[in-house]
Structures are given as structure tokens and as C-alpha cells.
What we know:
Oligomer: homodimer
Distance between the termini of chain A: 31 Å
Helix content of chain A: 55-70%
Number of strands of chain A: 2
Structural class of chain A: mainly alpha
CATH topology of the domain at 35-135 in chain A: Arc Repressor Mutant, subunit A
Amino acid sequence: MELLDLPALLLGAARSLVDGIDDGVRARGFTDLRPAHGFAFARLSSGGATVVQLADHLDVTKQAASQMVEDLVSKGYVERRPHPDDARARLIVLTEKGWACTRAADEAAEEVLRPWADEIGPERVAALRADLARLATPGRLRPIW
Amino acid sequence: MELLDLPALLLGAARSLVDGIDDGVRARGFTDLRPAHGFAFARLSSGGATVVQLADHLDVTKQAASQMVEDLVSKGYVERRPHPDDARARLIVLTEKGWACTRAADEAAEEVLRPWADEIGPERVAALRADLARLATPGRLRPIW
DNA sequence: CTCCTTTGGTCAATCAGCTTGACCATATAG
DNA sequence: CTATATGGTCAAGCTGATTGACCAAAGGAG
Lengths: 145, 145
């Protein structure tokens, strides 16, 4: 059993997926975003997050996360609100534009994955999900590009 | 069926794998390499390649590939030989050190993948391989980080 | 309550890896 | 033979990250 091509295969699949979704998002009019922003949106879409929480989720320094937030604020996707419990912190939340983009990303992901999922069938999808989860360390997601 | 977490799952698995292999390679004494170098080595290990071929494989510009080759030459992993058929071109080939590193990477990959493959069984591995291949565009591998 | 340490956040400088643009040498087509 | 295409390098610049310094508010210990 040749295992050694699995990393390349996995990477290739991940990249196709991410690129496909990114294309779909751009096609829906959000042309000033990178895939990494999508992972930030995913974190922000459940009640917002602080810069530090975002940094932790993206596995970058808080400075990098802060720069990204500044970028997203200037483009109108998120806004900084005072944190309800901590006067030092700010709660970063999606704006309406941010939500619209999130919906567009969900549509794009569905569009890319649906034909593939239908082709291989639900039980294979479930198996793949389980096997991948077992392979991944419980650690965090790093959006790499 | 919730498909939308698959990108993150895939990315997470790919990253665990790549990081695990990278750790193994470092543990074997090759501390001055990044994962991207591994993908270059994979291309070079089958008879060498020109800078342009390498650039194509890595999906970067030929300038970027050239810089990477220069880096690997200076570290002793590859060498530039005159190309047998084309006086403009140079054939980039692995040195003995480059081969040693390639073997180390294979060992590391085996070490990371074997327990997981044994756990889920060969038929699941085969299914996963097939499903991933179907998901990936025939396009090229991009080593992203 | 006051001190001291920890934590959230930003500013500034720097770095690594990649891109674009210009250029040269050789190959190849007409 | 000339003209264009291709392999490769040099140089400059950009982007997304990093490290380091710093400030303000929080939280624990006396």
C-alpha cells in the first residue's frame, strides 16, 4: 500500500476546494477578499470574537489578526464594537455586508461540494469525514495561503 | 447532510500531515528546509528537472523557482548540471544530501501515516484516496505555505 | 485599597517568499 | 538568415506575516 502520495492528494483536494469556493465568492461580487478571510468570517459568524480569539483560531499572532481586522473594517465587512464585559477588548462582528459575503460563501461551497457528494454517496462522505477527522490533530486550523 | 465543514476538515487534515512530516524531517536533522522544499524534491527525484519544469510543478513563477533552486544549491541539497539536450537549460538534480533528505521524508511520512492507515484499514484508505482524487482538479499542486 | 502581574490591543520595523519587468543566450520556425 | 519563442537570471517591489515595544484595563495577593 503506497501511502506516500496521500499528502499531495490531500493538499490537492483541499486546494481545489478552497479555490473553487473562492472563485464562487468572487463571482458573486466579493472580489477584494482572500480565502483566509473566509476562515475569519466563519469564526466571527457565531457571535463575534475578539482580536485575540481570532488570532488563536487562525493560528497567527495577534498583530497579524489585528491587521486583518483593520483591513476588513476598511472594506466594510466587519466592525469593532465595545466588548460588553471587558473594557480593554473589542468585539469584532460582521456587518450586513459581511453577512452577505458569508451567505455567498456558503452557496459557493454547496455548489462545489454537492455534485461530488452526490456522486460518491452519503455513506462515503460520512466515512471520509470520519477518517479525515481522525487524521487531523485536534489543533487549530491554519489558513496557510 | 452538512457539507460546509469539509473544507476546514480537509485543510486541517492536510496541515496535520504536512506538519507531522516536516517535524519528522527536522527530527532527522534537516532543519533548514520548509515543506515546500519537499514538493520540489519529489519532482527532482525522478530524473531531475529544469527550473521551468519545477516552477510549473510548484505553480509559481520561474523566478521564484530559480530563487528556491539557488537556496537549495547554497544549502547543498541540489546541484545545477548542464542539460544534455539544451544548452540554455540546466538540469537540477539532487545531491547525496538531497537524496538523504528525501529518504528521511519518506520515513517520516510512513511514520505519520502508518498508524492511521492501520486503524481505518486498507479498503477505507483506498476509498478515501479515490474520493479525494475525484475532488481534486487535475490541476497542479500548490504548496501554499 | 494598592501594588503587581496578566491580558487585549495597537504601532512600528522588519522579514520571507513571491511577483512583475527587464534582459541575455540559445533554440526553433519561416 | 532573420524573427520569434523559450530557459534562465538580475533587480526591484509588494504582501502577509513576524518580532519588539508599548499602553490601558483586569485580576489576584497582601
